[in-house]
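Record filed here:
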Amino acid sequence: MSAKNSILLYFLLLLCSGLPESTRAQENPESDPADTKRMLVFTKTNGFRHTSIETGVAVLSEFAEQEGVLMDHTEDSLQFNDVNLSKYQLVIFLSTTGDVLGTDQEKAFKNFVEGGGAFMGIHAATDTEYDWPWYGELVGAYFESHPEQQEAELLVTNLEHPATTHMSPSWRHYDEWYNFKNINPNIEILIRLNEKSYQGGKNGNNHPIAWFHENLGGRAFYTGLGHTEATFKNPVFREHLLGGLRYCLERE
């Protein structure tokens, strides 16, 4: 091989290695796109914006790489259309707030879930789309209020779910604890808060903080943890989040 051809080959290899993982997978003729899961992380806010969002995106990206899942991240609600959503098996609302989807986008997202697409909501996903009852049913409840951040006792009611198998039946964690309204009676509760262990709880003895269901077509998982950046560095929470991801992608 001539020196000129060797240099050309070197730069071609360098170019290919620098492509984003999703592009490399799509352009590799030996890969099968049908076997590759893909998820969309949505972080649009139309209200309070959590400083932990960027940390959460980084953690989810780490998990996606670990699990061999292709991940896209957007704050563009126009990405919620039938054609684009058909590429994904999972959509994650990471601390979204307020009204983040228009009428056409809501219809496309509803079609996605009713067609079997999975949904994961993290923390402020319950502080989203208050005027869309279907979304309230999907996410499982709406945020109502919260006291100051503090440590609380969490009571695990299901130790067999991928998001909780690593947990002790009772453990303590520092976070921002949501009080909820319009709680969907059909959710399967994974973790409850012990309101006697902290100040400001308003849901009584039945205060869910993480749950799942399969009532609307696809799998749905929600965790109320995740307000602080430190939470995304907590190994118990990280395993909780990864277990929820695996559940949504049917990898448990």
Summary: Residues 1-32 have pLDDT under 50 and may be disordered. Residues 3-17 form the longest helix (15 residues).
